[in-house]
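Weekly modeling sync, notes
Attendees: S.R. (lead), two postdocs, one rotation student

Agenda item 3: backlog of single-chain predictions. S.R. asked that every request posted to the team notebook include the full sequence so nobody has to chase files. The rotation student volunteered to paste the first one in as an example of the format we agreed on. Action items at the bottom.

Example entry:
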Amino acid sequence: MRHAALIIACTPLLAACSLINDFSIGPEIDGGAPPDGGSDAGSDAGPEDSGSDAGSDACTERAFFADSDRDGFGDPGISRMVCEMPGGFVDNDDDCDDSCEICRPGGTEICDSSRDENCDGTIDESATCGPCGGTCDWACSRALCDDAVAVTAGTNHSCAILEQGGAACWGNNADGQLGTGIAGPSLRSAVPVRVVDMDGTGYLAGVSSL
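Predicted structure, as returned to the notebook:
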């Protein structure tokens, strides 16, 4: 009805009305669909509209650990969850003392009675020089040599007098035979350990016989 009314009203200007009908009224009558049937609908919608690229810049966070002493091994107590490794951090938490550059897995134990240089959970267990009473045969310099000059054997343990006047024992320690100040069947030692003095504050000195 709308179409017919427009044609009647515009009869004096038929040519003009025909143009209006073709280009203005026709699509409105068809329901507003574009001439090609809507095949281009949404053709300008990009990936950002559909979300197909959502998360393209996302990353997988990982744990990185502080390496304050720069030895390549991280402090398990200080970590960050980030995408990229920050400066001063590493991707492992294997360090046992991040304030000590020489304390790391595979490090060399030094006889200092204070640090675990090889990160195996014990101190000075494989150190062989100086106050630990090792010998030059255990890779010490001559200045630190303290070789055995006499050896005596007991029941399941042995002791040696050292050239610097100390003593070292090894073997069973169930009854404190090794002279370390502590006793127990699990405290035996296969390598010589220094005998401590009576008050346990230092090592026994001035030993001439056992």
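Discussion: group reviewed the output briefly. DSSP finds three helices and seven strands in the chain.
Action items: rotation student to repeat for the remaining queue; S.R. to check formatting next week.
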